[in-house]
Amino acid sequence: MEETSGHKEYVAGLLAGVATVVTGHPFDTVKVKLQKHNTEAHGMKYKNGLHCTARIVRSEGVRGLYRGATSSFLGMAFESSLLFGIYSRTKQKLQEGLQNTRPQPQVIIPSAAYGGAIISFVLCPSELVKCRMQVQGTDSLVPKSSRYSSPLDCALKTMKTEGVTGIFRGGLTTLLRESLGNAVFFSVYEYVRYYMHLQLKAASSDHNDLIDVGIGIVTGGLGGVAVSIDKLLYF
């Protein structure tokens, strides 16, 4: 097992979390809008995701797609850093004494599930704030008196009206989602990465950083797809 520096995984996870929010938050905003307004009896109806996106940009500008992103940046950066760090360190401990270099499910699954359970305590409050900020937008459906001026204002008002437990609403579901989801993600990631390296090594002796980046993109993407399917089936 190759040893890594104490902070490398945490920094890599932090950067991955920021990149995730930059690219994924607009899609998440549209998803939340569609889920809320298209399920209300007298709510606003969007024809599809494109119609929803166009309406947001027209009424709020591009920044409307990133409404609630502040809490996501903070939450995802910290959560992703913690997840990768905990997963890597736990995996190293569980692999001690094992000679087999192949991915071991008895190592990957508990390491990923443990990391997912820990980060759920960070993710749950940040997601709650993010969703409430996304939903309010500038729509007339939300009275001005009920609007949040910032993610911090949203968090403070939630705790004031609902107590500390209010900020952790849906915590158990989040814990289960993150534990199971990350077990699936890292399992797919580790196995696909291992077999891709084997195939490339057999095909050519040349191996460089660019190839590693490509493998990382492919394996991370496949892991993300597997997690999405798992979450749809589970919930």
Automatic annotation (TrEMBL):
InterPro entries attached to this UniProt entry: MCP_dom_sf, MCP_transmembrane, Mitochondrial_Carrier
TM region positions: 65-87, 107-124
Membrane topology recorded in Swiss-Prot or TrEMBL: Multi-pass membrane protein
One cellular component term from this protein's GO annotations in UniProt: mitochondrial inner membrane
UniProt xrefs under PROSITE patterns: SOLCAR
GO BP field: mitochondrial L-ornithine transmembrane transport
Keyword line: Membrane, Mitochondrion, Mitochondrion inner membrane, Repeat, Transmembrane, Transmembrane helix, Transport
Solcar repeats: 4-93, 103-195
Single GO molecular function: L-ornithine transmembrane transporter activity
Localization annotation: Mitochondrion inner membrane
Organism superkingdom: Eukaryota
Family: Belongs to the mitochondrial carrier (TC 2.A.29) family.
Stated name of the protein: Mitochondrial arginine transporter BAC1
Native source species: Vitis rotundifolia
